[in-house]
Amino acid sequence: MSAAPPxxxxxxxxxxxxxxxxxxxxxxxxxxxxxxISGIGYEHLFDxxxxxxxxxxxxxxxxxxxxxxxxxxxxxxxxxxxxQALSKGKLLASLPVVMIVVIVLTLMGVSWSQFAxxxxxVIALAAALVGFTEETVFRGIxxxxxxxxxxxxxxxxxxxxxxxxxxxxxxxxxxxxxxPLQVVFAGLSGVSFYLARRLTGTLFAAMALHASWDFSTFxxxxxxxxxxxxxxxxxxxxxxxxxxxxxxxxxPARPAHSGQPPRRGCxxxxxxxxxxxxxASCGHGAGVHRRGLAVARPGAVLLRxxxxxxxxxxx
Length: 315
Description:
- By secondary structure, the protein is mainly α.
- It has helices at 17-37, 49-74, 90-109, 119-146, 153-167, 179-200, 203-222, 226-245, 276-282, and strands spanning 287-290, 293-296.
- The chain is globular, with a radius of gyration of 28 Å.
- The two termini are 49 Å apart.
């Protein structure tokens, strides 16, 4: 006998947008509040190892404990892994791939020699905590809470990206006057993080992409090298040129099938070229008989029962 599938734990509180937004607000208040209490402004978060530990690592670690405690209590499923397979495609992978290339180019242009011993490691720790906590909150808890009711997946994506972008307005409390512009870029990057989750089926891919992106931007913000901006701009021009050089063109139309017109009451199946009556009786195109019944395919007339005599299958 096969083993029974494991039972899912009953949630203590059902996922809903109200609960997701409340958790988002709690995370923002705790993390941003602790960062502000540290007395270190946004522009000086990564000036030294002590600044990074006090104003970034410590608040983010408390935020990580908060979200883990909530998930253990709430017992939500579908936060770290997809509950069902979603459609995938090369087009969906384009934005995460662009981000990966920009990350590599940025890291190549960083002036590594100017960092003190251990400073880059502490910045990496802060970036890892950002990737874990923010992805758990936004592409985990908030996205799961929006996948309720009759919302489409596109609506869940749009609202998640919007909330993630607006979250960066909290940087105004840390003295970052460029926070409104960060809202736009954060919203776009949120779409890419969502796609990383969707393509792989796990939130950990989005965490890794988010942490890598922030690590590269944190380092570039402390000691940027000329190669950061030159390489990123060059890559952007390459992408624009490739898009303009190879625009999308519709594929060639299928050739029309030649032959005598189908008999009255029998539609022609566009896939096999057989009429509905022929296709149904020989098991091609329009349908396949199983135990005297036909399994339908769109656009064809099917026989309801298996005929006793074989009908010639000619186009």
